[in-house]
Design goal:
The chain is mostly beta strands. The protein has 10 helices and 68 strands. The strands form 17 sheets. It has a 6-stranded antiparallel β-sheet, with no helix packed on it. A 4-stranded antiparallel β-sheet has the order 1-28-27-26, with no helix packed on it. Helix 1 packs antiparallel against helix 2.
Length: about 950
């Protein structure tokens, strides 16, 4: 190693550690700079590993997009009433109008210095721009100047009904006093005559510091009958428009020179947000009770702005720490932190529909748009999900504890997908843990705890290979040699580790008095056997094991963990400290110190550059193998209570750690995108970085789809399918690419292709070419087959005997081939594979009525007649929408003809009655049914373009089988 390379590696390790600290301090700019320093120059070796890629994605902004700002400072912004435009007031006099559709600047309005307020009238007709010298009214459509209000100064605010404009008036310049002694006048203008209808003078004395333009901040209540004014350091509440003072909030508001006082009033007209005393938090007030509710801490610098969502449930706050935080108003819980603004967040505004949040930086004047419904990527998993290990494509394989349902978990999005194998027996008590998979994901060990056996499955063939004795859920695999190692006992009752030959399950090697399972090196040339305070290294020669050396651990402690580096040249062992050994000489070449307790587990990253460790000191640490320095630390507050494991995904994109604490089992999943995925986001050459690996291409396709690069995402899906074609061992990977390809085709509005692909994926028969156009084609939107059971653990309780194809039910022809199923209630869907809504179902025709073939399923005793299970939302060509409610026992009922349910419904007829194997087995016979509901269209002359199917009830959910327009 050259001195230059050694110095670069030491600097790299130090900067990674500093970058994590910078992120924890919300210093995104510094963290990005530290990472940027280590992008290699041409000809330089690339030192970046998992930790760099992990921090890179942590440094990504969550913004939807950015809009061009002023070339100088800005201070205020506002949405137009239709949510299509944003006005931004510049510090040096101009106001920009930005169009959200084109994301371009469409107008620049001249003005005087220090714009301090911009606001559209509620009807969208005018734009009021206020500065410290004047108030100007602009036509919000032509952007021509309409008038200037004599002696009016900012702030200028429209009342919610648009009938009044509120401004302030200062004394003439020759009559001005000391700013701390000035009296202010509040003027109320009629917008029909532009004459002052009312005024109020109030003092601002008592403000001890701060610049003049901060003395008065007003805000209207949502009903327009209440006005709250921060005057100096005093909050006054007035009725409007008579300006009768109702109350004065007893607490004073700090107006320090480094803070910017603000007011925000929620839609309930009583919850008020102001800056906290120290300036780094936000105080919430109940104006009705005239008391403080709570303080929201969390910002690391002064809070400059706040805005309530239109429904008043969420508060957004902007700070000098360059972040925007979202808070639950009712509980005070932090919902999300948006990082990415390059300067102080000086202003915030929600769009009228609440679906977007705009933030404004002071000096950079960049407007960023955010999704206020988004939440930070979760880092931990608790029950009911039990992870077992990583598949070859980097997804985490897990079981739902509610039943023997294996799933795969996307490490980036936490999205769940069904896994076909293994299907576990319901009468067996299983225990699962990490290291249950082989490194290629082909083999899986599932431990049956009470039986004391390890079931070994071939996941690709969905076949159980053998059942091995096992005292714990820990198992190691050797893919090429087809070996598995489990912890067992011998005839004398002594603990042993047995290595088994697969698929026969015959014992190959047995190690007596071994406290842990054997660890097999990735190259399958060596085997580590733990013997407590010492260990033995074995070399595999043909069918035999040859002892290389027995080593005493450098500390007088049990060896608690061991891991081989991927290249087979290093062995890491742990007690409290972690020791690095060279192979095959077994010489200590490094010691990693940091954990404060013993019982440490270890895992090398696939590139061998990073070592992960977890101990019972509540930390997971990443170590730089070359410099032997700590890179990153993850820490939790709960006390350890049991066993723990740590593992990298085979593709190096994720790190999973599992342990038990005072709240039960918990697992962390830390995500680090591949360099190919990073290239997608940064506009680089992802194709060359993806190379020949189809699993990498699949992850690239997912990233392209999330980045809305849909044509390229489709090309990437096709790359996966091309590279897996005629390769039986990769069929499982192609099966993951097909559904993604269907989603992309739907986003490209290529519904016919999407429908063909979706039906092929699900095993649904294609649509009959002779099907009349009145029968709406649902091919692209089916998410269940008719043979799929309604309940995951009750087989054959389905619609498999429903006649398929073009069928006439209750006098209407339907195209019957599959099922659309949605389920409401986010909490109920935390680990569900269901969806809440299916949008964009193509109708594309004028119609007098719609016929729905539908039913419901769920807990029928917990839902009352008339309760809404969901709705259909129709979108018309002229822009209007119509919502059709789905009401229980009115428009549909449970598909099971249960005794306590009505046989006739007010707005629907029974269209089909049949049976399934489950109903016959339980003695219910023909107890399966579907309903036809007909809806009359009030706008038959206007084309219905699309339809959405949305669930609202968590316990009982609707099914849509077919849809016909007439």
């Amino acid at each position: 190693m050259t001195l230059c390379l050694a110095a670069r590696e030491r600097l790299y390790a130090a900067d990674i550690n500093l970058a994590q600290q910078a992120l924890q301090a919300d210093n995104l700019r510094l963290a990005r700079s530290l990472l940027q320093n280590h992008i290699p120059q041409p000809g330089q070796p690339d030192l970046r590993g998992f930790e760099w890629r992990y921090l890179w994605q942590k440094c990504r902004s969550q913004e939807l997009f950015s809009l061009p700002g002023h070339t100088n400072q800005s201070r205020v912004l506002a949405f137009s009433p239709d949510g299509h435009r944003i006005a931004v007031g510049g510090f040096f006099g101009t106001t920009m109008i930005l169009d959200l559709g084109t994301r371009q600047r469409i107008a620049v309005l001249p003005g005087t210095n220090r714009i301090q307020s911009v606001e559209f009238s509620p009807d969208g007709r005018w734009l009021a721009v206020g500065s410290h010298l004047d108030v100007r009214l602009w036509d919000a459509r032509s952007f021509s100047l309409v008038r200037e209000l004599p002696d009016g100064v900012a702030p200028a605010l429209f009342s919610p009904d648009g009938k009044h404009l509120l401004t302030y008036r200062r004394p003439a310049s020759g009559q001005r006093k000391n700013p701390l002694e000035e009296d202010w006048r509040l003027d109320v203008w009629h917008t029909d005559t532009w004459s002052v209808s009312n005024s109020f003078n109030f003092p601002v004395s008592g403000s001890r510091s701060g610049s003049r333009d901060l003395y008065v901040q007003p805000v209207f209540g949502a009903d327009g009958k209440r006005l709250v004014v921060l005057a100096g350091d005093t909050i006054r509440v007035f009725s409007f428009p008579d300006l009768r003072e109702l109350l004065v909030v007893p607490e004073r508001i700090p107006a320090g020179s480094t803070s910017r006082p603000f007011l925000a009033l929620a839609a309930d007209n009583r919850t008020l947000a102001t800056v906290s005393r120290e300036g780094f938090g936000v105080r919430l007030w109940d104006l009705e009770a005239n008391r403080e509710l709570r303080v929201l801490p969390g910002h690391l610098d002064h809070v400059f702005s706040a805005a309530f969502s239109p429904d008043g449930t969420v508060l957004a706050t902007g700070s000098g720490d360059q972040t925007t935080k979202l808070w639950n108003v009712a509980t005070g819980d932090l919902l999300n932190t948006f990082r990415g603004q390059g300067d102080e967040v000086i202003a915030l505004a929600f769009s009228p529909d609440g679906k977007q949040l705009a933030s404004l930086g002071t000096a950079d004047a960049v407007v960023k748009l955010w999704d206020p419904q988004s939440r930070p990527r979760r880092d931990s998993i608790r029950e009911p999900l039990w992870p077992v290990g990583f598949d070859a494509d980097g997804s985490l394989v897990a079981f739902l504890s509610l039943g023997p349902r294996p799933v795969t978990l996307d490490p980036e999005t936490f999205a769940l997908s069904p896994a076909a194998s293994p299907v576990l027996r319901e009468d067996v008590s299983y225990g699962v843990d990490f290291h249950g998979l082989s490194s290629d994901g082909a083999l899986q060990g599932v431990w049956a705890a009470e039986e004391g056996v390890m079931e070994v499955w071939d996941r690709r063939a969905n076949q159980r290979l053998c059942m091995l004795p096992a005292l714990s859920p820990l198992v190691s695999f050797a893919n090429a040699r087809r070996l598995a190692a489990t912890i067992t006992t011998n005839a004398a009752g002594l603990l042993t580790t047995t290595v088994w030959q697969l698929p026969s399950g015959t014992a190959k090697w047995v190690f007596t008095n071994r406290f842990e399972r054997a660890v097999i090196s990735p190259d399958e040339q060596h085997l580590f056997a733990n013997e407590g305070e010492h260990f033995r290294l074995w070399r595999v020669e043909g069918e035999e094991l040859v002892s290389v050396r027995t080593a005493q651990h450098p500390v007088d402690r049990f060896v608690s963990g061991a891991a081989f580096s991927p290249d087979g040249w290093r062995l890491a062992t742990s007690a409290r400290d972690i020791f690095l050994w060279s192979l095959p000489s077994l010489e200590v070449v490094g010691v990693l110190k940091g954990h404060t307790r013993a019982s440490t587990r270890l895992a090398f990253s696939p590139d061998g550059r990073t070592l992960a460790s977890i101990a019972d000191d509540r930390t997971v640490r990443l170590w730089h193998v070359s410099t032997q320095r700590e890179l990153i630390r993850f820490q939790t507050s709960e006390q350890d209570q049991g066993d723990f494991q740590v593992e990298f995904s085979p593709d190096g994109r994720a790190l999973a750690a599992r342990r038990f604490d005072t709240k039960g089992a918990i697992a962390w999943l830390h995500y680090a995108p591949s360099f190919a995925e990073i290239a997608v986001v940064e506009g680089g050459d992802y194709r060359s970085l993806a190379g020949e690996d189809p699993a990498t291409w699949l992850n690239v396709a997912k990233t392209l789809q999330r980045e809305n690069r849909r044509v390229q995402a489709l090309e990437a899906c096709d790359e996966v399918l091309r590279r897996t074609a005629n390769r039986e061992e990769l069929t499982w990977l192609a099966d993951k690419a097909h559904p993604l390809r269907v989603r992309v085709l739907k986003q490209l509005n290529r519904l016919d292709e999407a429908g063909t692909g979706n039906c092929a994926n699900l095993g649904i028969v294609p649509r009959n070419p002779a099907a009349p156009p009145e029968t709406i084609d649902l091919s692209a939107f089916y998410n269940r087959t008719l043979a799929d059971a309604a309940e995951p653990n009750v087989n054959a309780n389905d619609l498999s005997e429903l006649p398929q194809g073009l069928q006439t039910f209750a006098g209407t022809v339907f195209d019957v081939r599959g099922r659309l199923q949605v389920i409401g209630g986010a909490a109920q869907r935390q680990w569900s594979l269901e969806v809440e809504r299916i949008e964009g179902i193509r109708v594309g025709r004028r119609l007098a009525r719609l016929h729905f073939l539908q039913a419901a399923h769920g807990d029928s005793r917990k839902v009352a007649t008339g309760d809404r299970l969901g709705h259909y939302r129709l979108h018309f060509a002229d822009g209007r929408t119509v919502e059709i409610p789905i009401r229980y026992n009115v428009d549909l009922s449970d598909y099971r003809a249960l005794e306590h349910l009505p046989s006739e419904l007010p707005e629907a007829v029974e269209a089909w009655r049949g049976a399934n194997p489950h109903s016959r087995a339980t003695g219910n016979g023909d107890a399966i049914r579907l309903f036809k509901r007909t809806w009359q269209n009030p706008f038959p002359e206007v084309e219905v373009t699309t339809l959405d199917f949305v669930a609202e009830n968590a316990g009982t959910h609707p099914w849509l089988i077919a849809l016909t327009a007439e």
